[in-house]
Amino acid sequence: MELIGAFCLVLISILTLVYVYFKNAFNYWKSRNIPCDEPTIPYGTFKGFGKTIHPSHFIKNVYDKYKPTGEKVCGLYFFARPVAVLLDLDIVKHVMIKDFANFNERGLYYNEEDDPLSAHLFSLDGDKWKKLRAKLTPTFTSGKMKFMFPTVVEVGDRFRNCLFDVVKGNNELEIKELLARFTTDVIGTCAFGIECNSLKDPNAEFRKYGRESFAKPRHSTHFLELINGFRSLAKKLHVKIVRHDVSEFFMKVVRDTVEYREKNDVNRNDFMDLLIKLKNQETTDKDKVITLNEVAAQAFVFFLAGFETSSTTLTFCLYELALNPEIQTRTRRVIREALEKHNGQFTYEAMMDMPYVDQVLEETLRKYPPVANLNRRTKNDYRVPGSKIVLEKGLSIIIPAYAIQHDPEIYPSPEQFNPDRFDAEEAKKRDAMAWLPFGDGPRNCIGLRFGMMQARIGLVTLLNNFEFALGSKTPVPLIFETSQFILSPVGGVYLKLTPIKS
Ligand code: HEM
């Protein structure tokens, strides 16, 4: 009896401590006069985030509620941790570009020792990030893209042939999976120099592990946020975030590829080649070289960041073109005119001669930015220009890209798909921070050029060979998978493909 009494006492004391801890923490925004929804224990204001509601819509609701108040920033609590959401494009510009030195971190968890693949460019912070970014930037110049162009076109041709075969049996296809196989093969070839074969074999290992990395991550969105909030503790507890089987597979592929290339002196001028050169540099400056684990982590992030973002962009694009046949016809006409001008050859120059194709992709990325919310962390206390608000050292910041790109004051009738918004003259009238699918500033997407090239090649190849109409199983509007970090349609997108006889 006494034991039960003691147990109850301990339990009540712990619950009281937890209650007091949360109540104190929940005073953060109120005491600074910054608007915030009423938090509850234990989720703070994040109840439903990534569970019943997709993070894009969750943050859009917050933005839509607080932006009309004229405030530049509003607050949230993820559990007890305060998070700031930027509501003003000027402040966004300060954080991403003008005062970048104070916001060059994302504050994500990684663990080099126990989970080497987690220590990639996207998650690294501070000096490590800065040095690695400088080393990797030359990998993505337009010269390098031009060099890789024919390889990507080749994969595009294989994709077209594969689709011709598939539509013979059934012309209503789930296009997201097929596009993911195309981008997996592209990035597998360009990052690893390996023919992943996922176009022919849907269960090819690259596709399998790529698919599972997104569809079945090691931790839920909530748990990941908890890990991000307690990074030092998580490191001490040896917490890993990359799935064990995914890690084993990629480490082995990279180890084998590097070994083979070094032994046989293979130079392919692809991403892997450039990473190996960084590893083998002869220099006494330790900062300039990277280890095999670092090679693997970067190849891994190029793979993950490279295939899913581009394939979902193409999926959303074809969906919109199926819904808007007149835009589809116009895009096809522009493609054919440019190809004709370039003697029927799909060259790099021909691709750059199709500005309307870019407008279609830009409008797709406006309506469906694969990374809906961008993250930064404050390095030192920062007074928001033109206000009394101070973003304190260590505070997590959300830049609500999806919400900004659906703001009717910036994009009238935001649900309407209208590539003319990105006509050069129209685009010039808007604030540069109003379009953020690749982020901005020194920490923007390093693979922007490659991602756009891959999407252009995919779109040109597809529209030149097929007509697209909406399939019977596709809902309008699309519903997003709430638990996936990248914007992704539930159940994929079914489209009817009709081959075009040329
Ligand atoms: C349509 C395609 C793509 C989209 C929409 C996209 C989007 C993004 C976004 C929003 C960020 C964060 C930017 C920020 O915080 O300001 C990012 C970062 C990054 N992306 Fe992409 N991405 C795409 C393709 C690629 C490709 C093809 C690669 C590599 C081959 C890549 C590699 C990376 C890496 C490594 C980072 C981290 C950069 C850093 O922190 O320094 N991405 N991407």
Number of strands: 9
Q: What Rg, in angstroms, do the CA atoms define?
A: 24 Å
List the strand order in the largest sheet.
1-2-7-4
* Contiguous uncertain segments of 5+ residues: none
The CATH superfamily appears as Cytochrome P450
If you consult CATH, what is the topology? Cytochrome p450
- Mind telling me the CATH class? Mainly Alpha
**Cα separation of the termini:** 87 Å
DSSP helix count? 19
Which structural class do you get from the secondary structure elements? alpha+beta
Strand content is 5-15%
- The string of secondary-structure elements, in order, is HHHEEHHHEHHHHHHHHHHEEEEHHHEE
**Percentage of helical residues?**
40-55%
CATH structural architecture:
Orthogonal Bundle
Q: Give the count of structural domains.
A: 1
Largest sheet composition: 4 strands, mixed
- Identify every distinct bound molecule in the structure, by name, code or SMILES: protoporphyrin IX containing FE
Mean pLDDT, to the nearest integer, reads 90
Silhouette: globular
What does this structure look like?
The chain has 502 residues and is α+β, with helices and mostly antiparallel strands. The chain is 52% helix and 8% strand. The protein has helices at residues 2-25, 28-31, 55-66, 89-98, 126-136, 142-169, 175-192, 205-215, 221-229, 231-236, 244-264, 271-280, 292-323, 325-341, 348-352, 355-367, 401-405, 424-428, 448-465, and strands at 73-78, 81-86, 172-174, 374-377, 382-383, 390-391, 396-399, 466-470, 494-499. The strands form 3 sheets. The chain has a 4-stranded mixed beta sheet. It has a 3-stranded antiparallel beta sheet with strand order 3-9-8. The relative contact order is 0.15. The model has no long low-confidence stretch (mean pLDDT 90). Protoporphyrin IX containing FE (HEM) binds at residues 121-122, 133, 301-302, 305-306, 309-310, 313, 370-371, 374, 437-440, 443-447, 450-451, 455.
